[in-house]
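Let us work through a complete example step by step.
Step 1: write down the sequence.
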Amino acid sequence: MKKTTWKLSISIVLVLVSCMNPMLSAKEYHVSKTGSNSNSGSETEPLLTISKAAKLATPGDTITVHEGIYREWVKPIRGGESDTKRIVYRAAPGEKVEIKGSEVITGWEELMDGVWKVTIPNTFFGDYNPAGRLPVTFYKSIEQLPDFRNYSMEGRTYRYFRDTPLYSFGFGLSYTKFRYSNLKFSKGNLDVSETLEVEAEIENIGEYRGDEVVQLYVSRKNTRFRVPIRELKGFTRVFLKKGQKKKISFKLIPKDFSVVNLDGERLLEPGIITISIGGCQPGYNLDKEGLVMKDVSIIGKAKHLE
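Step 2: predict the structure and record it as tokens.
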């Protein structure tokens, strides 16, 4: 009887301890630059990336990162359940850890010795695409620009720049991807005094919801004098969920097709106009799905525009 009672007592104690302390099931995953993502994540068999540890960790677990520079995008698939049951990311005591990226996180608050806290928006993890665009051209070097004493516009601004810049006017990054298609005009041939309605479709074919800044540019072919290579004539911000498609439209008036001659007079002239719609200006887009282009003919007699 004593032996049976002793075993029963041990069993009861173990059950009580397990119920009272759920942290007994918590795990600690180690990450090291000498590790491998095929390892178990123990201290002797560490993982290679923080992202791998983030995929394995559940509420209550701790991820200990050892010394080194980690160049990766960490996107946890799970969060903590409460203040007492978090997923803790920490540097190994006494070791220097750096996670390199384009974002600088500030505003850290010290909660206790070695524990810091910061609140960051969901945009940091790519859950939403903010879609900012550059309002100027960033050149690679001053060698790309004409002499300072050259007062012509040739080679200056996105309208007259023929080289490849570091970052073009209208450039912007995205966490998702958009496809443009079905560019249509209300007319194939347009009189110099008529307006033109332009329509295209945009689809979010990426993994995240977000904004896109749709830009419309016009370019002239075979002109009698120097005109801009391209000109922005319209833009709009569009929000699309993952997999969503929308139609976008613009209305171009005669002034949008006009040019300024060497005497400073604004003219409406017949000719071929190339219209481009996309998430950037034409000429620098490497992704063919991010831009659609089509020509329209301007007919009739040239005339001055007041």
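Step 3: interpret the result. The domain at 142-304 is CATH 2.60.40.10 (Immunoglobulin-like).
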